[in-house]
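Following up on my earlier message about GDL. Here are the inputs again, as you asked, copied directly from the submission form:
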Amino acid sequence: MATYTTDNFLAGVIEGFYGPPWTHAERFELFDWMARGGLNTYFYAPKDDLNQRAIWRELYSATEAEALGQLIRACQERNLRFVYALSPGLDIRYSNAAELERLQRRFAQILALGGQNFSLLFDDIPDRMDPADRQRWGSFASAQCQVVNALFRWTRERCPGARFLFCPTPYCGRMAEAQLGGEGYLATVGRELLPEIDVFWTGPEIISREITVAHAAELQTVLRRKPLIWDNLHANDYDGRRFFCGPYCGRPPELRNAVSGLLINPNTEFPLNFVAIRTLAEFVRCPGTWNSRQAYRAAMCEWLPYFATSGPPLELEDLILLGDCYYLPHEEGAEAVALFERVCALLARNPANWGNEAATVRRQIARLREFCFRLTELRHRPLFYALNRRVWELREELDLLDRYLAFKSSPGNQKAAYHPDSHLPGTYRGGMVARLQRLLVPQTDGTIAPAPVTLPGAAEPRRQTHITQ
Ligand code: GDL
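Thanks, got it. Here's what our run produced:
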């Protein structure tokens, strides 16, 4: 039986997000990180590589194949398992034998390059089938299982030890509940998919805050095998303003025995994934208890040298506070929470009673803002470029907050309205997306409700600018 301490337990990284795929140089760096941390699997499935989904029938050119061969060899040299994935689900005709041959031709190209492990992904595809396919296979699940089984047998004949991974159309609890893929989809997969094939699962949600042992066990009963976790905890392709550099958490160490592997699909910007990968590596081999905060601090300490600047060194505690502002999808880190709560408490008070607190808060804000600014000095330019737009936004907000606190701290202004000179309508929080975001507002109970109606134009008043010489 595979346990997390053996090589059979798949532990590593999925390149499976939307957006620009990683460069080869980034992938080589990833392999070094993984090998150093004892992770064993790299899963190649860049969603927006055309050959991955849109033109899955087309073979690679000689140059592209050569580049893939380099990746495969780089994995082999480091004892990493390279898994090659294809996503034919957008338009595959399941009952057409020529389609199977096309998939085989694609996999044959990878076999010729030394690849041995394969995967077919059916996530994020239309939930319907061609009428001929429906008539032949009866259900989405059966149609997919027969293609996957056939490809699995074909690869095993050529490569007896090959691992084969399958991503179902409903790949999380919420999708299964909504019966995506049709009634009884997962039960059909459990019955009809060959038992050697691993089945991906992202947890109760696409981005799961927690994945419990009970959740995995329930799934094991339906799938008749342990699920393989495709973990989107650190994925940020769905929100361009954020990234996640918090620790791997929300999964108990016991989960390792309830699944066939843990693979993370992290931030699109490769340089931002150091902590995600480092803490996953620690989690996979931790003895039995997991202190995610401790793991975070240790990983931040190792990440700090990547933040060498052209000026004086940056401090670990500042990096930790920045990381806490971009922690995990469902939570900020402790230092960011503390700062936020302090600001909230201050704003809730009458400025006349702020006393020294405003000055203290402003000092904290200034320190974080200064740290954000100093990132412009990073020697590791790809890291800075990955951070730049997001951290710029943080700086803007800190700047506005500081100006507001300064204004209100002045005795004459405590009842006056604040008209900033810097954060002006149009250039600040402007644009269609921002306007739409203000229209429908998430409520604390998880519902979404319309904002109080604002007439077009009323939200963005014009102010006269007087130029006096
Ligand atoms: C998904 C996609 C994944 C994407 C992630 C986060 C799976 C199986 N598929 O649903 O490619 O990066 O969400 O947006 O997770």
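One observation from looking it over: Residues 439-469 form one domain. Hope that helps, and feel free to reply on this thread.
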